[in-house]
Amino acid sequence: MTPRPLLLLGAGGLAREALAAVRALPEQWQPLGALDDDPARHGALLDGLPVLGGTQLVHEHPDAAVLACVANARRPRGRAELVRRLGLPHARWASVVHPACSLAPGVEVGAGALLLAGVVVTAPQRIGAHVVAMPHVLLTHDDEVGDFATLAGRATLAGGVRLGQSAYVGQGALLREYTSIGEAAVIGMGAVVLTDVPPGQTWAGNPAGPLPTDERRPDEVR
Ligand SMILES: CC(C)(COP(=O)(O)OP(=O)(O)OC[C@H]1O[C@@H](n2cnc3c(N)ncnc32)[C@H](O)[C@@H]1OP(=O)(O)O)[C@@H](O)C(=O)NCCC(=O)NCCS
């Protein structure tokens, strides 16, 4: 199999982790460079990979696959906004699954999704487009992970949990079975979620509840 050229969007920590996953799959991917809209990063090396310029450069490399490697709990819709702004055809988006993941037969991984090392999915389900699952995320039977959702390391979903689009689940959070996390809701690291979380809210703690100081600006919860 000839490896497909690949551009990473973003040149931060998640892009470095994505690059390590891509380099573990040399028969599938040939990383060309990273693209980032922060001019201060242009010309730098990301673990040896050149930062070629801004994200609009994707249009100058039509043969390259593309992977969005940005995630920020304070901007849960940030990755969706980037993907929509670029308007690339579906076939341009790469799905990268680190070889150290364990996916049950029948799991479907959406376009543009990134699953880092140690992700375990125990029963067939669809993982949405542009989902990011960081190391050791655990998904179990009947979970539904919506497009653009982010799961930080060791986030654990019991059975039948539904994550809305662009939901963000922080490190080590535990989600009770059959709970539902609303669109662009944010779950803080270490939270124990026992009830449904409304869209756009930030919840944390054990048992999890709304943060009293949830002051995300309107453009961040749009
Ligand atoms: C929930 C979260 C998004 C809140 O961030 P924030 O809006 O910047 O909130 P602040 O740090 O200003 O904290 C606001 C309040 O919430 C509390 N708080 C923040 N995160 C909390 C958490 N995970 N659990 C319990 N309380 C938390 C703070 O103690 C603070 O309380 P106070 O007002 O009584 O002092 C953030 O703390 C978090 O958990 N992010 C996820 C981190 C992560 O998983 N990263 C992985 C990718 S590398």
Q: Describe it for me?
A:
Helices cover 9% and strands 28% of the residues. The chain is globular, with a radius of gyration of 17 Å. The longest helix is centred in the N-terminal third of the chain and has 11 residues, at 13-23. It is mainly beta. It starts with a strand and ends in a 12-residue tail after the last strand. The chain contains 2 helices and 24 strands. The strands form 6 sheets. It has an 8-stranded mixed beta sheet with strand order 6-9-12-15-18-21-23-24, with helices on one face. The protein has a 5-stranded mixed beta sheet with strand order 3-4-2-1-5. Strands 7-10-13 form a 3-stranded parallel beta sheet, with no helix packed on it. Helix 1 links the parallel strand 1 and strand 2 (29-35). It folds into 2 domains: 4-70, 3-Layer(aba) Sandwich (Rossmann fold); 95-205, Hexapeptide repeat proteins (UDP N-Acetylglucosamine Acyltransferase, domain 1). Bound molecules: coenzyme A. The site of coenzyme A has 13 residues, from strand 23.
Which CATH C-level class of the largest domain is it? Answer: Mainly Beta
The computed structural class is mainly beta
Q: Helix content range of the residues, please?
A: under 10%
Poorly predicted ranges:
217-222
Number of strands: 24
> What's the CATH architecture name of the largest domain?
3 Solenoid
Domain tally: 2
Order of helices and strands: EHEEEEHEEEEEEEEEEEEEEEEEEE
Mean pLDDT metric:
95
**Major beta sheet, strand line-up:** 6-9-12-15-18-21-23-24
Radius of gyration: 17 Å
What is the number of helical segments per DSSP (H or I, 4+ residues)?
Answer: 2
Distance between the termini: 42 Å
CATH topology of the largest domain: UDP N-Acetylglucosamine Acyltransferase, domain 1
What gross morphology would you assign? Answer: globular
Name given to the CATH homologous superfamily of the largest domain: Hexapeptide repeat proteins
Biggest sheet character: 8 strands, mixed
Ligand identities: coenzyme A
